[in-house]
């Protein structure tokens, strides 16, 4: 009996070992127990591409607000819940935020850094008492010996709090975007659009420089001295420069006539072909930023964009290709994580029947499914994403 017990324990250990990924020890070889630092500066990208760029700001706001406003449903294999502790938790995650606020912050962090983190505050029961979104630029992954995260460090001004995730239920839900070259962090759209953001910001600064100089290239002042002298003295040059800056530059002095002394001649300049192309470069950069985020440029008011036949078609494509895939993946990850706390298999997903932009498509799908006489009611409900009815389980 003793040998059987030892053999059983050894077999269980081998079974657990067989379920582990073979690449885990390779990933953890050089980083076990140490912080896996993110390979990008999230703070700089956020300042330049979100806080300092109108196209990036509007793209992130459009996606995060649209995805956070989607109605959510909670269901299992048997029923869709109208009331449930997890549904109440998602609706009122904490005292300072509602569902839309929490998910908007989660989607925003995911779009700006490629990673989103949700903390569960224990309330003494299986259901967490509160949910909080943590800033992704402050979170660091601590890989374990098997290559998977063993802990998360949240750092603020040199102070650190470590979340241990080696237990049965993790206090942190880490949602990350796909990154082909990083095992622990995701790739954000704003990083892919970083060059386009730099071009767009540089073009905006160039336009601001034109406004500061009467909204056009100012021209040149040519010095023709006595006896063919082509150079001014240092004192003359400094005096002329100071007078130009004081009397003729800036919006306050726009339109003021220029007074020139003997030997100075004004040569006005027009826009060169390269100056005319600069604005087109800015518009092309704006379209690249929109493409990286998956927002139709028409929705951002970018001129010269007529990919979609009308605004309604662009709006529907925005929901179908960008908002719904993101919301479905994030809510599914949050649902699995909350299910681990509860100990039950619960599915959290967007309610597609309540999305106004997809009403026409849903009506057509309902008509096709309901008119298919060769399908049973149970098959029709599964095609529409609905749980089975209790009487169907009993064979009625």
TrEMBL record:
<dbReference type="InterPro" id="IPR006944">
    <property type="entry name" value="Phage/GTA_portal"/>
</dbReference>
<dbReference type="Pfam" id="PF04860">
    <property type="entry name" value="Phage_portal"/>
</dbReference>
<protein>
    <submittedName>
        <fullName>Portal protein</fullName>
    </submittedName>
</protein>
<dbReference type="InterPro" id="IPR006427">
    <property type="entry name" value="Portal_HK97"/>
</dbReference>
